[in-house]
Amino acid sequence: MIPGVDVSHWQVEIDWSEAKRAGVKFAFIKATEFPDKKTTLFIDDLLYRNLQGVSANGIYWSAYHFFRTHIDPVIQAQVFVETVGQFTSLPPVLDLEAAGCKGEKLNLKVRAFLQEVERLTNRKPIIYTSGGFWRSYMMYEKRVHADWAREYPLWMAQYTTLWPTPLYPWAGWDFWQYSDKGKLPGFKTHMDLNWFNGSEEDLVERFNVGDGSYSVPAAALVDANVETDTEAKLMREFEQAKQSYVNFHGDYQEAGQEPKRYFANGRRPSFHSARAAQTAAERQWVRSYFIDKAVRQAG
To answer: What is the CB neighbour count within 10 angstroms for residue 240?
Structure first.
């Protein structure tokens, strides 16, 4: 087995060269999430820095989306893939540990997300979950509702010194998150520790790993510390958009997170590596969730 970690902005800045020397072979990095009851996309503040760090140090990598059920799963898949860009190492990951529904309904939502990610990336996503969550929510009504999942790789969370308990419908696991108390050189905080069930050669063959190079998507403005004329213009557009929709009472930022502001045209300024421009599809989504919905409610 070979060791790896999974991280987010909670691990603060990471020295990936030190992590590499400490033996870290792979890393899963948080990318996106729609926080509970929010319609605002949260992009992890250190996503791009971490992706560039692991790529530069030859660490196998992937990024994960924390799944919620209150947002259309196809939309979640699209903004996740667009935010990360090309998956040139390990496949994309679905982080499944929260749910607003159970049984067949939840299975349908999860499958829709996975199928859309696979369509967009041509990579079969990895499912991250725990036995407790999977049995309680995905197999809530009938075990057979979850039969479809066996075709996807499993990243299993179980904090134990013993071998993890088998999880239906998988015959085994690919990755095992066995601790959230890890402490390694290069990290200022604790992090989650993982094993891959095989050798490094097995990992490369199993997931058809590419060269691992990473380039930040063109839609993401990395240097958010320097305000440009373009960003100032976008900020003015944002203020105008707020005035145009005075009846909108939605959220422009997450509690405890950096501001995530959107405009009437579907764009927002960059804050800590957030995207400064959106595709036509996402602009339509932003209008649907932020503006049209608010106007209907106000009417």
So the answer is: 11
Closest CA to 271 of 220, 205, 203: 220
Closest by alpha carbon to 241, among 285, 287, 274, 284? 287
Give mean pLDDT in consecutive 10-residue pieces for the chain, a chain of 299 residues: 96 96 97 93 96 97 97 96 97 95 94 98 97 94 90 96 92 96 94 97 96 88 40 48 39 34 39 40 48 45
Query: Where does 96-150 show beta strands of DSSP type E?
Result: 126-130
Type of residue numbered 207: F
For 185-215, give one letter per residue: b (16+ CB within 10 A) or e.
Answer: ebbeeebbbbbbbeeeeebeeebebeebebe
In sign, the C-alpha dihedral spanning 10, 17, 1, 110 is positive
Helix axes 103-121, 73-84, angle to 10 degrees: 30
Domain residues for the domain of 46 are: 2-206
Q: What whole-number distance in Å separates Cα of residue 183 and Cα of residue 193?
A: 9
Q: Supply 70's token pair.
A: 């209150």
Q: Do residues 171 and 37 share a domain?
A: yes
CATH code: domain of residue 192:
3.20.20.80
Query: Dihedral (C-alpha) 64, 68, 70, 76: value to the nearest 10 degrees?
Result: 10
